[in-house]
Amino acid sequence: MVDALHIIRDDGSTDPRLDPELSEEDAVRLYRGMSLQRILDNRMLALQRQGRIGFYGPSLGQEAAIVGAAMAMEPEDWIVPQYREPGAALIRGMPLKELLCQLIGNAEDPVHGRQMPCHYVYRKGNYLSISSPVGTQIPHAVGIAWAMRLRGEPHAVLVFFGDGATSTADFHAAMNFAGVFRTPTVFLCNNNQWAISVPVARQTASATLAQKAPAYGFDGVRVDGMDALAVFRATGDAARRAREGHGPTMIEAVTYRLGPHSSSDDPSRYRDESEVALWRARDPIARYRRYLEHAGWWDDGREARLEQEIGDEITRAIQEAERAPPPAVETLFTDVYAEMPDHLRDQRDAFLAPRGR
Amino acid sequence: MPAMTMVQAINNALREEMRRDDRVIVLGEDVGRNGGVFRCTEGLLDEFPERVFDTPLAEGGIIGTAIGMALYGLRPVPEIQFMDFIYPAFDQIVSEAAKMRYRSGGQFTVPMTIRTPFGGGIRGGHYHSQSSEAYFCHTPGLKVVVPSTPKEAKGLLTASIRDPDPVMFLEPKKLYRSSREEVPEGEVLVPLGEAAVRRPGKDVSLIAYGYMAQVCLEAATKAAAKGVEAEVIDLRTLVPLDEPTLLASVKKTGRAVVVYEAPRTAGFGAEISAILAEKAIEYLRGPIVRVTGFDTPFPYALEDVYLPNSDRVLAAIDKVMTF
Ligand SMILES: Cc1ncc(C[n+]2csc(CCOP(=O)(O)OP(=O)(O)O)c2C)c(N)n1
Ligand SMILES: [Mg+2]
User: Which pLDDT band, with edges at 50, 70 and 90, does B1 fall under?
Assistant: First the structure.
């Protein structure tokens, strides 16, 4: 279906020339990351329908393209997300409870309920804050990578964005700067075929998205985004080259958004279920599981235990997060500046005063 | 006459203008098959397959090409999905659309209406809630229109599309489906530049637009229960502003409360306050009081704290009534 780099064959064996030869531990960790993302998405969509969170954007179908890429980066590398990549933040060690508190927007949310659900941030994992405006993060990733070079530090930046984002001016400016300044940036485009209701054919008349990279002076590769090993391999190679001073790479992960754009979206208005079914048959998690089984690292028993474990973790995180109170009103006024200016202090005091505190 | 929500009235206005004038073109993200994320363009692609376009995700491209269409004589009505996403097109709007007539001595003009949902009240956090009308009111060459009822949304949008200059048509999301109103089929026109007196009163003028006009009406009802008669002025068009209606009201009441949900500093209501200070100060019994959003980014969980409500307006009324 896709003319792109792939490693896991249908029977679960791998292409020996390309297999990144993960240890059992890493291989299972990748699987766990993808499964966590999948189970979390389904649970959060349900929570949204129950009105316990206000909004959610799932990454169903894109687990390999998200977790596989994040796993290929070193801890010192930075990750710059679009918004559909909580799986990458969790791989970086973001506690589930922290994510849940963000989704609810409560007092224990590190950003005090200031942002909509799915706009989490994780500084400890070098995982940047999320902005809704599409594409704005891509130049940031180039600037961070540029700064790494300026400081002589051998790290790289992985930036996620969608097919829709490749139409933004920021994408093109970022690609151009990365090419000119040879920044250690890995551009990971999750081509999930849709930008809400707009198909990728309406984003570009180019045959592929990866082919945009050569026009900016560096390589673009297409990988099967339903194949976690292929994504891992391509991202790892690109990051290594970046750290060694060989400049940026763009990776187009060809994947599919199996679910709605978000909890506010109804995809039946604009796409055929038959198309979805075709891609569902290529489910990245099922495919990766066949690889684990082929390697002798997985069976039904381990699967059942993993599901149970993840389910329990999520339940615990929900329970703990739902116990937290709403954010304090004062937090509306903090962090606008390092130091609160007088005019803002006055607004805060005037608002709080009649409430008799 | 059908009862319509504001979404339906906007859809109806677009449809009727597209039927009347084949130069009217609709373009934007998700406006075709999906009918717009708020459904304002629902069904238009079916009826006008050659004049409705889902575009690539690039606001600068949407507005820049719409300007080109307008230069060539079409009447584009681009949609920006949320006003929070208009900034990639800011240069095209303020440097190009706004100045085209002036810089070409009237040889080239941009009859374009940019529709965009704006404002808070839908739990959209920073990036699906902002009211950035002030940036555009500050740009000579642009008209800025804000409807607050379904019928007037139809009338104002129709007038905007027919206007020879670029119009920013800002749709208060909070009012999209909050009520229904009888909206006549066929031509409805509300001229640009005319404010409406929503409720007459002699004690204090409440001046607002969009969702805040509704909040002021609620506050006026509460004030009436306390024996204070508040007059509610809904500006409807911010640029050009209907100064006579504004000044007549304040000269009559001698008290003014200006309400807007954007951040306080340099918001459009600051301009209103300045006009009142310049042109009606001798009629004022006390200070002009503003009720506004705070000088912070628009929040998510604390949205209700941020957005002015009728109690905050009432507190301002109480304050000016002490004079
Ligand atoms: C600048 C900007 N314009 C419009 C939007 C509204 N919007 C949110 S997501 C989206 C589609 C993005 O598609 P893509 O980049 O392919 O990412 P995906 O959602 O498929 O992961 C749009 C149009 C936005 N957030 N930012
Ligand atoms: Mg996409």
Answer: confident
Closest Cα to residue A69, out of A137, A201, A5, A160? Answer: A160
Please state, in angstroms and as integers, the Cα–Cα distance from residue A7 to each residue in A24, A241, A288, following that order.
17, 20, 10
Query: Which ranges in B43-177 belong to alpha helices (H)?
Result: 44-47, 59-71, 90-91, 100-103, 133-137, 150-162
Return the pLDDT at A353.
86
- Centre of ligand 1 to C-alpha A164, Å, is 6
pTM for this structure? Answer: 0.97
Nearest CA among B279, B300, B297, B296 for reference residue B288: B279
* Spatial separation of the C-alpha atoms in residues B28 and B167, rounded to whole Å: 16
A257 burial level (CB within 10 Å; 0-12, 13-18, 19+): buried
Q: What is the ipTM of this complex?
A: 0.96
Just list the catalytic residues of B.
128
Among chain B, residues having any CB pair with chain A shorter than 8 Å are: 29-30, 32-35, 37, 54-58, 60-61, 84-85, 87-88, 123-128, 264-265, 294-297, 299-302, 305-306, 315
Quote the ligand 1 centre to B85 CA distance (angstroms): 10
Q: Report whether pLDDT(B114) > 60.
A: yes
Distance from the A68 Cα atom to the nearest Cα atom in chain B, whole angstroms: 26
Q: Which residue spans of chain B are classified as CATH 3.40.50.970?
A: 3-182
Helices and strands (DSSP H and E) totals, chain A? 12, 7
Residue A355 has a pLDDT of 52
Q: Which CATH class is domain A24-326?
A: alpha beta
Average pLDDT, chain B: 98
Q: Cβ contacts (< 8 Å) between B177 and chain A: which residues? A: none
Identify the DSSP state of B297. Answer: P
Mark the ranges of chain A whose per-residue pLDDT is less than 70.
1-2, 354-357
Span B3-182: which CATH code?
A: 3.40.50.970
Q: Is A196 in the pocket of ligand 1 (CB under 6 A)?
A: yes
Give CATH for domain B196-321: 3.40.50.920
Nearest CA to A119 out of A198, A53, A202 is that of A53
Domain ranges of chain A: 24-326, 329-357
Crossing angle of the two packed helices A63-71 and A228-243, in degrees rounded to 10: 40
**Beta carbons of B295 and A354 less than 8 Å apart:** no
Q: What is the pLDDT of residue A2?
A: 57
Among the partner-chain residues A105, A170, A347, the one whose CB lies closest to the CB of B300 is A105
Average pLDDT over residues B292-311: 98
Task: State yes or no: pLDDT of B71 exceeds 70.
Answer: yes
Q: Is the minimum CB–CB distance between A129 and chain B shorter than 8 Å?
A: no
Instruction: Give the ligand 1 atom nearest the CA of B87.
Output: 1
